[in-house]
Amino acid sequence: MNAENKPPVVSRREWLAAVDTLRVREKAHTREGDAITAARRRLPMTEVEPSTPLAGGNGEVPLIDVFEGRTQLFVSYHMWHDGRPGADQCEGCTFFTGQVYELSHLHQRDVTFAVFCQGPFEESDRYRRFMGWDMPWYSVPAESHEWLLAGRGFGMKACYLRDGDRVFETYWTTGRGVEPMAPSYGILDMTVYGRQETWEDSPPGWPQPYETRGQQFRKDGRPTAQWARITAGHDDDLHGAQPRTGGSGCCS
Fold it and tell me: Quick one: where's region Disordered (predicted)?
């Protein structure tokens, strides 16, 4: 590392003054974020058929049952590539879905979290088990696309409200709007080199090895999070597949 790819060194007093200057902008950013979420809470909503079928571990499940008795539902729509090995599954959805672990904090606020995956339930559920994810998991059959997707695509996130036996969609987002699901990005944003992605406005010489067409979520041909499972020997759900890129079957 040379002087061209690290910050200048100053006294602690100068450093604290620089941080304090930035803090003013950070607080303004936080307040604007609060204002946006307040506006989000005032959006209208649109009704969704509560009996819309989904496929789960115990067979067909109507949308209203996915709420698990709670009044709110947050759904992560996970992309799936039918018949392709685990190494070729969506690295972005793997990145975001895999960062949701402790659901009790959502349940305390009367919110259920669930993943609605594209494609056959059996294939994607095998991927879920391989990744070690415990969240509720369903697949969306083709006949439910009209009600749930309404012309949109997998990869989005959507919020729903249950009022008795009626269901309403209250909000949805996609693209960078899904970043709140990834605390890793928030942590990286506070480090000196940031996300190290090519689009970022960083000083000359800062490391930026990651393009943003999926490469930022992959390592050696696989979604990054898979390697930790394979290294630890947690690949029993690969049904005999070897820990390598390529091969046949869901997660080979």
Answer: 198-218, 233-252
Distance CA 146, CA 151 (A): 7
Q: Quick one: 19 exposed, middle or buried, by C-beta within 10 A (0-12, 13-18, 19+)?
A: exposed
Strand pairing class (72-78; 157-163): antiparallel
Provide the pairing of β-strand 53-56 with 111-117.
unpaired
Tell me what the mean pLDDT of segment 68-95 comes to: 96
Closest CA to 54 of 127, 151, 125, 157: 125
Per the listing, tokens 């996130």 go with 157
pLDDT digits (tens, 9 = 90+) for 119-170: 999 999 999 999 999 999 999 999 999 999 999 999 999 999 999 999 999 9
Q: Which two tokens stand for residue 37?
A: 């979420």
Decide if 107 contacts 128 (C-beta within 8 A): no
- Note the pTM of the prediction, 2 decimals: 0.90
Rounded CA-CA distance 107/157 in Å is 18
CA distance 210 to 150: 33
